[in-house]
Predict the structure.
Amino acid sequence: MEVLNSGDAPALVTNSEVRRILQLAENRAPAAQNLMTSDDGTPPDPAARREARAFRQRDWIEERTAAYIDEFVSIGAESAKSLAAALTSKTSFSESDEGGFDLTDAEALQVLNHLPTEIVELHLLIEDLPSRLSEERQQDLLNCIARHK
């Protein structure tokens, strides 16, 4: 299988960004419904019916994905951006901010999508956590995540 880079979306996207992309897709005219009947009410040709069936399947997948994200995503886009900046920065932004966790983009994405609440969850998402962050910094990270929820 070949992975195509269409440029429609970046390689790493958060659940809230996926939801935004799906909302844009929902605003499109429902392609499957447009292809099922012609203007005069006659049935479309077999090729058009196959195409409509493919769109129906795509639309179902998009609907199910959107429903899942709506149920489990609890962070807004702006809050996700500021949390991502805190997670990936090497230093704190200010004295009152608890940024500077120096996570990789992939680790930050995992944290944004899962929003861990316990240190054990951090261990599952961040490689070699004990050597990178002290227990105090791990708790700071959880507090930072909780503030952005």
Summary: Residues 46-72 form the longest helix (27 residues). The mean pLDDT is 80.
